[in-house]
Amino acid sequence: MKRTQGQPVRVLVVGSMNMDLVLTVERFPQPNETVFGTTTREVPGGKGGNQAVAACRLGAETRMVAAVGADANGRKLVAGLAAEGIATDSIAELETAATGLAVIPVDADGNNQIMVFPGANLALDVEQVRAAFTSGPTSAGPTADVVLLQLEISPAAIRETVRLAREQGILTVLDAGPAGAVEVADFAGIDVISPNESETLAWTGIDPVDDAACQAAAELLLQKSGARMAVLKLGRRGAWLQPLGAAGRRFPTFEAVRAVDSTAAGDAFTAALALRFVETGDWEEAVLFGNAAGSICVSRHGAQPSLPQREEVLSFLAEQGGITG
């Protein structure tokens, strides 16, 4: 179904929801070393929840498919998404598992380390995914314009999401993190794969330290996954856009930003990338939009609190001489 001009992009996010315990430190500890933190806070997070909030703030009509525990953290997370205007009717509340939890130290340069207890996220099952794809107005067209996925849920849920999206002709974008127990074959059928630097190394064995390495890693990732587009998130070096069967290109990040916390920056990038591509059909403009959203995100503390509104991204790009509308 062709989108009507001006109609909001419909985003379906299938993924994780965590409560983040964020600790600010001057530097990360060495093994067996203790360091003191300067601040601590409890922040809504999880890669899926972050991407849903990012997409919604950027103007998308957003729906979340996830699982949380029947506990205080789960209720807070669901209420937070609902307050943003995100549809939460496809979020299951489970008595048998606790809500996902992440512990995130952030150093003085804004770098982070993330340790995740997946909890209820791994209990998101295929029947719940199927229900989300059949409860929308599928007779009039697909459930969504784009589906966002990450790897903090079970491989079975990922495979079923991709299968159903392909049946309906929906663009699928996989944020390929964290790298871990699943195999690249589990991604078969996705359209876009987007890992960060460490995930690119883990999936391909190639460290994307320069443009030649980015090209080689992205080509291998496309070959292994069957995707038609790879977008490598390179942190301070920007992003690498690699179409299937063509030369790739690196898009530098914006310099006019002081990074204080990189948490959720990749999620902001991925959501912005997907939304802008659906709006314009232009991958280069989509990467610029994603870079801008990620740049704003790293200038703020926390996961979901740091995610920008659409007007902020457009204003930022206009100031940089980029996209204006």
Provide key terms for this protein.
325 residues, alpha/beta, UDP-N-acetylmuramoyl-L-alanine:D-glutamate ligase, nine-stranded mixed sheet, four-stranded mixed sheet, 13 strands, 34% helix
Textual characterization of the structure:
This protein has one domain (10-30, 39-318): Ribokinase (UDP-N-acetylmuramoyl-L-alanine:D-glutamate ligase), CATH 3.40.1190.20. The radius of gyration is 18 Å and the shape is globular. Helix content is 34%, strand content 23%. Helix 1 (47-57) packs across helix 7, helix 3 (126-134) runs parallel beside helix 4 (155-168) and helix 8 (283-298) packs across helix 9. The chain is α/β, with parallel strands linked by helices. It has nine helices and 13 strands. It has helices at residues 47-57, 72-84, 126-134, 155-168, 197-204, 211-225, 265-280, 283-298, 310-319; strands spanning 10-14, 18-25, 37-45, 61-69, 87-94, 100-106, 115-117, 146-149, 171-175, 192-194, 229-233, 239-243, 249-251. The chain has a nine-stranded mixed sheet, with helices on both faces. A four-stranded mixed sheet has the order 3-2-6-7. A hairpin with an 8-residue loop joins strand 6 (100-106) and strand 7.
Domain tally: 1
The count of strands amounts to 13
Distance between the termini: 24 Å
Structural class computed from helices and strand pairing: alpha/beta
H/E series: EEEHEHEEEHEHEEHHEEEHHH
Strand content: 15-25%
User: Can you count the helices?
Assistant: 9
Rg: 18 Å
CATH-assigned homologous superfamily? Ribokinase
